[in-house]
Design a protein that fits this description.
Elements lengths: L7 E6 L16 H15 L3 E6 L4 H11 L14 H14 L2 E4 L4 H12 L8 E3 L24 H6 L7
Parallel strand pairs: 1-2, 1-3, 3-4
Helix pairs in contact: 1-2, 3-4
Length: 166
């Protein structure tokens, strides 16, 4: 199956080898990732997902794979790529994707977001960082809609003395 056949959401999900698996309600747990992905798929009418991750946690990956059925890059069997080369290929796929969601505050997410705009000409609002989950119910907090900025009311404009007060 080719991702080029229709628009898709690319996700870069960074997992720290040093940190324990986060609980379901924390910022970028497997549960939160699935919620973010489904939200963006619904918002943009997408059916396909590409997942780039450094996770080797079989439980988390099984949960994500069962719920999202993402495409992932695997090199041909006769090709030997080290982990850095593999992530470079995955980052390129994310950069080319029509839509992108990346782990918050990671160097690779920043690079992908920049490359999407400067190299591939995607609109900046089609790529975002995952929001941090702040509630305790296990539900991911909804990210601010990148397409629709917060509304400024006309009556607040008259009372504002500078742009920071809007």
């Amino acid at each position: 199956d080719s991702l080029a056949a229709e628009p898709y959401l690319a996700i870069y999900w960074h997992r720290s080898a040093a940190a324990p698996r986060p609980r379901a309600g924390s910022g970028q747990s497997a549960h939160a990732l699935v919620r973010h992905a489904r939200r963006y798929m619904k918002r943009y009418g997408l059916r396909r997902i590409f997942l780039a991750t450094n996770s080797n946690d079989r439980v988390e990956l099984a949960q994500v794979n069962a719920k999202l059925r993402p495409a992932q890059y695997s090199p041909p069997a006769d090709t030997a790529l080290d982990a850095t080369a593999m992530m470079s290929v995955r980052a390129a796929i994310c950069s080319m994707a029509p839509y992108f969601v990346g782990s918050r505050a990671t160097e690779l997410t920043g690079m992908i977001l920049e490359e999407r705009v400067s190299v591939f000409g995607h609109a900046a609002e089609t790529g975002v960082e995952m929001s941090v989950d702040t509630n305790q119910t296990g539900d991911a907090s909804p990210p601010r809609d990148p397409v629709r900025p917060p509304a400024v009311r006309i009556d607040s404009m008259a009372a504002a003395r500078h742009k920071d007060e809007l």
